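Exam revision sheet. Question 4 asks you to relate a sequence to its structure. Input first:
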Amino acid sequence: MSELQSLSPDLLIHIAQTLQVSMKALVATVELLDEGATVPFIARYRKEATGNLDEVQIRAIEERLLYLRELVSRKETILASIQEQGKLTDELKGRIDRTLDKGELEDLYLPFKPKRRTKAMIAREKGLDALAAYLWQQEPSGTSLETFAASFVHAEKGVADVEEAPGVPLGVREEVEDVTRHEPATELPDLVRRHLGAISRRRDLVEEVREVDPAPQRSPESGTPS
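Answer key, structure tokens:
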């Protein structure tokens, strides 16, 4: 009975009207389903309680019930998330409360959905923006890459050692990818292989970069890999 009570009267009325069954038959069916009775059992042995609903009608109730319960649970999660961000307005809450469609609910939540923290975002938090820009611009500065990269070592930001911290070169690589997302695909792998290889000699990072562009570049004149 607790699960039945978790649905508001408005939702029960919605189910009854949508499926064109009486409220009495609906409530009895929901209670039987919550007690663990199967659809065939209810249809065959509980006709008096359900008002002679057949298996198709009972199955429809079961499916709609599950959908709406999932919807209610998702609404609670979304409302809590937006409230935690301090962005929940009365208008937005009203729209979320009124919707009966999962797709519409997710559309309402989309502008407030927390973004997944990528390695590029973590690299920016560690102050590695300038290092990513250095790798992309490839402009002579009179400072070697190793020396320039070493200037970003900062224990308090979690950059203890450029050579040894696996998240640093990988994060910078992803940050470069963010910057060059609209550049020709053939330019990025060479750039990353050439510069990030100097930051970290780790074979797994080299292999990861190669996966971006596995085909070797060939010289137009010789036809051999460059």
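Marking note for examiners. The chain has 14 helices and no strands.
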